[in-house]
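RECORD TYPE: inverse folding
INPUT: structure tokens
STRUCTURE:
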């Protein structure tokens, strides 16, 4: 499996510079089970970073460590410029956390949930009511604000959950499987909320099992497997890690088709469709090499399409046995 490994520049304290969240060598075990086995993370400010992996891969454990809910057994981490072990209070003041299971109290109204959160952030009653009203309107919950939260749909509860998280105006938010259990419409609504947060300068670290979610939202994705980061990169970069990518050329002129087949290497022919398939990682360099060969031969294709594996292929390749424990991490820049 091809990879491109590049070191991340770090300052002398062992953490990347200008990162909203950074971690080096995080380790965590429960008894004889190693959940995190020395992972490194770097999340630039104002981006979405997705931790993708199967159940028990260590995603939630990583979020709990970074949000100071549990302590790591080893390694270092900084969130918002603060060391999670040395200054947990400063970290908590800088972040918001929404877990897999809603923190909403169903026995009180949506507005009362918001005001309770404002009290926890030591806002004055006047300021708390102002912030609550603004967030309820922002998340389209004003009409439901006076109803008990137990009457809310799953999507409404998740919106309220995130609204409560934003009461303290955090610039870094951890979303642990934020769309679990939501129907497709509610999931897409949640994606839009996350995009709007990032446009406002918020950094989002989310964990998910949904490949489409990571593909749609994340600037960078880290695939966790057996406590290690099996691969990291943008969605497009990760898709180029697994074989199966190709360029498809289609011709209307049989003579041009035959000439192209002779000019190009490693071609799979489809004589009936007048189409050629050439293995490719989908990169600009690979595509240019194909076009240069066609230009040199004076050939022009009528249609060109680039096919790359999707995240399903990546996920299976990295977690389905091809990346056994101990396999070196593959990082793409």
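DESIGNED SEQUENCE:
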């Amino acid at each position: 499996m091809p990879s491109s490994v590049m070191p991340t520049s770090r300052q002398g304290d062992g953490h990347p510079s200008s990162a909203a969240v950074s971690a080096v060598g995080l380790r965590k075990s429960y008894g004889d089970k190693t959940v995190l086995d020395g992972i490194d993370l770097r999340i630039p400010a104002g981006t979405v970073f997705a931790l993708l992996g199967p159940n028990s891969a260590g995603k939630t454990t990583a979020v709990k460590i970074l949000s100071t809910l549990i302590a790591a057994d080893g390694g270092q981490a900084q969130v918002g410029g603060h060391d999670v072990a040395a200054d947990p209070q400063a970290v908590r003041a800088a972040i918001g956390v929404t877990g897999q299971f809603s923190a909403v109290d169903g026995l009180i109204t949506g507005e009362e949930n918001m005001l309770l959160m404002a009290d926890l952030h030591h806002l004055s009653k006047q300021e708390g009511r102002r912030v609550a009203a603004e967030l309820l309107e922002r998340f389209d919950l004003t009409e439901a604000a006076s109803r008990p939260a137990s009457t809310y749909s799953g999507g409404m509860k998740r919106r309220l959950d995130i609204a409560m998280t934003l009461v303290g105006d955090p610039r870094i938010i951890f979303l642990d499987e934020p769309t679990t259990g939501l129907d497709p419409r509610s999931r897409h609504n949640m994606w839009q909320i996350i995009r709007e947060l990032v446009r406002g300068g918020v950094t989002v670290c989310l964990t998910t099992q949904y490949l489409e979610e990571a593909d749609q939202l994340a600037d960078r994705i880290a695939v966790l497997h057996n406590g290690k980061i099996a691969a990291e990169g943008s969605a497009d970069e990760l898709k180029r890690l697994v074989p199966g990518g190709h360029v498809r050329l289609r011709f209307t002129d049989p003579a041009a088709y035959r000439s192209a087949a002779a000019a190009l290497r490693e071609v799979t022919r489809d004589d009936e469709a007048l189409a050629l398939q050439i293995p490719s990682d989908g990169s600009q360099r690979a595509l240019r090499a194909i076009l240069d060969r066609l230009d040199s031969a004076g050939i022009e294709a009528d249609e060109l399409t680039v096919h790359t594996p999707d995240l399903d292929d990546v996920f299976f390749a990295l977690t389905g046995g091809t990346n056994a424990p101990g396999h070196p991490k593959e990082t793409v820049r």
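NOTES: DSSP finds eleven helices and 15 strands in the chain.
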